[in-house]
Specification:
533 residues; mainly alpha; two-stranded antiparallel ribbon
Amino acid sequence: MRWSGLRGHGRWGAALLVVLLLAQMTFAMVTTALRQTPTIDEPVYVGTAVVQWREHTLRYNPEHPPLGKLLIGAGVGPAQPRLEPPLPADQGLLGRRLLYESGNDPWRVMLFARLPVIALTLLFGLVVFAFARELAGVAGGLAALALYAFSPDVVAHGSLATLDVPAAGFLLTAAWLAWRARRRPEVYLPLAGAALGAAVATRMSALAAVPVLMALAVVSVRHARPGARAKAFAGAGVVVLTALAVVWAAYLVVDPRLRWAPQQMPDLRGLRGVLVGLLPLPEPFRDGMRLQFALENRPWQGFLFGHLYDGSRWYYLPAALLVKTPLGMLALWAAGAVAVAAVPRLRPAAPYVLLPAAVLLLAAMQGHRDFGTRYVVFLPMFLAVAAAGVLAAGRRWAPASVAGLVLLVAVSSVRTYPFYLPYSNEAFGGPANTRFRLHDSNVDWGQDLGRLAERLRERYPGQRVWLVYKGSGVPAHYGIEAADPRRVPESRVHGLLAVSDSAAAKARGPLAELLADSRPVEDVGHSITIYRR
């Protein structure tokens, strides 16, 4: 059912529900952004964004393409932050210089930096609604939008000046436009290519979707023009060429002369090195891929269900999703995937909804950094669309069941407010217990340093504080006067011990001994635990 199929009151009622769902999402994201200190990755992106706009240089953060940072920089610009020279060589120190060493208010700078991502997240919600509405009518669109708007992962990462949600949303948009190209390929395939290019120009991991979108372009053209095999492959070429043009444009906006003089790039050998060298993309992009592969080869540690391990686990992301996805959402994802694949009138949409999600998930599972479900934040987008298919299955029980499950998702999401990053569903004990099963951006990404400062001022004024903090914030800037307990003998550590939960999850040696002899007294934002010694 389209808008034209609704009577006047029904159309206005559906529009009102769309506005209300996006309004509550806006409230959740903005109020969350206002209270969170910079997460680990944000200072790098924000500092790089400012330098890209002002200095027109690609020297910082080459491991990620520039488009997402250009968008973040467009938000930071009106804040007019100062950046004291000289610029440090290290990108982490650049972010610290901007936020804490140039006389800026980090709360204000970070809010302005996060606003473009919040706006994009809301726009992608409209894409979810439109895509699902075309498959399952207005009711399906509303159900999909509700799942998206109440997704703890989407709200959490849509509130941050990072690249995960923008890249995922651009990929969803590309798939939706490829679907629309089944009717008018000459209009929608170039737009699909532009959205795909925007995704690749934001995160290199989006490259995994390029062959999928090429195949979808062929399918769409053959549906629109039966028998036109040559035109079908030409459609795939249009998608790729447009995507390439967008990636090149993103780099040229930063530096029209593409000046690039890297100090030292890792030597990437074998087939991967050959393929990277053959990519028809700017040299900074290719070198960024070499850096990404070098990062993958580092000796990372993971933490899953209380077990600390070296390397990665292929099942990490599915297991983490099981913990961090609302139970009603998991049920609707599964039912929707079955419906899209099984219901005859929905089956043509399966390659556009399920195939990109599956390919991107498999690609993400090959990674060596088990750091969080943010690497698969595209799943709450694509599978929200798939979930709408349950309403198109023609079962009597479907409307009531979908409404009930969406309500459960909404309740679970509202209950975790404003602590979306450490969300766990009720089967795993809620956000207060996520730290026992997962770490890093699943729980504690440095976001609660400001809340810790408030807690110490309000409840423990004048007490001796020891701090083990995992993040990019500067504790002293928020009024936290604390020492690192790992740098003194254990016998000298008395008073309050505040420890980031990711540090506690990976504790070994002196820190593990300190925690064993300490009594937890409360947690801050479900990401930092305060102990008494």
